[in-house]
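Recall from the previous chapter that SMILES is a line notation for molecules. Here it describes flavin mononucleotide.
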Amino acid sequence: MIVAGSTLTALPAGIVPGQPLTALAPMQDVTDLAFMGVVAHYGAPDYFFTEFLRVHSMSRPEKHILRSIDENATGRPVFAQLIGEDLTHLARTVDELLRHPIAGIDLNLGCPAPKVYKKNVGGGLLRDPEKIAEILATLRAASPGLFTVKMRIGFEDTRHFDRVLDLVNEHRVDLLSVHGRTVKEMYRSEVHYDYIAHAVSRVRCPVLANGNVTSPAAAARIVGDTRAAGVMIGRHAIRNPWIFRQCREIFSGQTVTPLTLANVRDYVERLYRATQRPDLEERYHVNKMKKYLNFVGQSVDADGAFLHAMRRTETERDLFSVCDQHLLADPARPFAPEPYPGVIARPNCETPHADGCSLETITA
Ligand SMILES: Cc1cc2nc3c(=O)[nH]c(=O)nc-3n(C[C@H](O)[C@H](O)[C@H](O)COP(=O)(O)O)c2cc1C
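With both inputs in hand, we obtain:
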């Protein structure tokens, strides 16, 4: 059932009020209804963000993204992320989204795909703070409820960082997520947590720290170092969907529940069933699964044997036979809390997908 759109004026409480917040990072081709449901099964984040909705003169909110809002049964708030620069159509899209049960509107100021930033949207906007000012003013005025921003720390350097942070204050942004890399640094450089700490001290709204939050221990360390209000986790929630529950454990001083390879076998099965669609041929579905498993495999074994075997499968039967061999031969063996060093999810290039961010090319 669709209920009224966001008129929230305060951020929703987290699952454990008072703890640092957790959010599943928006990820194109990943954070759809099925994936949000699977993550919630193992321990929901406090907040979800949709994949970006493209906004231009011809755009209409993409149906599959609306499903992740309308049919979301996780009970957790979902923020709808927009990417675009056309003020009229951004405002129109907010109006349309307000008919859906969103927690708020989020603006993408970070996508590093060249096809995207060359249109001066996403990360491309970080070169033009005055355009950001117009967009923030428009979205703030159009949003009766919460309005949030997700940004990188700059385009090729951080020269406009403070100016953008000041705009966040000026336009009363309710929550800021900071991925601590520039656009040009893509996905694999070191993360500049000192810049996230700087944002925390400069803006009035809560800040979520994003970038390489690999484990609950890393989340606790990053929150401690940056004084951020919480963490936003992307690729490492694909690898470990228990990570949000584990964060709640560490934040409350409990021992983090260890995971086994048998737990991972359960995850693979659940993800396969959740992402199955009648119109998706088996080999395409297996290929899609391989993209998630690229991340999962980083914690299965230190020499990448599971990844090697998994990548060669073509059918559901082969895929699960490889899973049984590698995950159930010694089912109580630990699933490593951090990725094994040197086990890289392939492809290990960083040329993002033609028109966005994609599982095809982004690795950890
Ligand atoms: C496959 C993929 C798709 C992504 N799509 C989006 C997106 O739609 N919107 C966005 O703001 N960021 C997107 N990102 C960036 C992530 O939200 C996040 O900022 C980045 O991956 C760093 O966090 P992590 O180290 O926890 O993965 C995407 C990242 C990946 C790996």
